[in-house]
Amino acid sequence: MINEQIRDREVRLIGKDGEQLGIMSSRDAYGKAQEAGLDLVKIAPKAKPPVCKIIDYGKYKYELARKEKEAKKKQKTIDIKEVRLSPNIGANDLNTKVGAARKFISKGNKVKVTLRFRGREMAHMSNGRHILDEFAESLSDIASVEKAPKVEGRSMTMFLSEKR
């Protein structure tokens, strides 16, 4: 809230240089802000009495946006990359998929390994588990199994994440 929007009976006022000006009515505080040629901004509405400060509102909004942007820069987003396998995958093809997963994990992403079953492969789903175990074993130096292999419909999925 700024300027006339502040309807509190009493507010604690902080001057433009950060000095405490004391507790006064919101009208008096607004008058002092107008004298200084600046805005009266409610900073802490939950405080008793609410805290208002005499500052340039445009500059205040800009500073808040800058701080928020800076905080976003420091955040690290983790994506989930997917590697799809089939139950009758060859050894070299499996090594290629392991290499791709290794690259994803080294960049800090999580990897979802999906083993898809089609047609008659559905009858031998238990044989597919050893492929996922072999996949996890070949990446055990840099990754750990976050979620164990689990059957969901026509596929078996497992999640790998970087070791801490």
Automatic annotation (TrEMBL):
It comes from the Bacteria. It holds the Pfam family IF3_C. It is found in: Cytoplasm. Its main location: cytoplasm. PROSITE patterns: IF3 (PS00938). GO terms for cellular component: cytosol; membrane. Residues 78-163 form the Translation initiation factor 3 C-terminal domain. GO terms for molecular function: ribosome binding; translation initiation factor activity. InterPro entries: T_IF-3_C_sf (IPR036788), T_IF-3_N_sf (IPR036787), Translation_initiation_fac3_CS (IPR019813), Translation_initiation_fac_3 (IPR001288), Translation_initiation_fac_3_C (IPR019815), Translation_initiation_fac_3_N (IPR019814). One of its GO terms (biological process) is ribosome disassembly. Residues 2-71 form the Translation initiation factor 3 N-terminal domain. Keywords: Cytoplasm, Initiation factor, Protein biosynthesis. IF-3 binds to the 30S ribosomal subunit and shifts the equilibrium between 70S ribosomes and their 50S and 30S subunits in favor of the free subunits, thus enhancing the availability of 30S subunits on which protein synthesis initiation begins. Belongs to the IF-3 family. Monomer. PANTHER family: TRANSLATION INITIATION FACTOR IF-3 (PTHR10938), TRANSLATION INITIATION FACTOR IF-3, MITOCHONDRIAL (PTHR10938:SF0). This is Translation initiation factor IF-3. It comes from Blautia liquoris. The gene is infC.
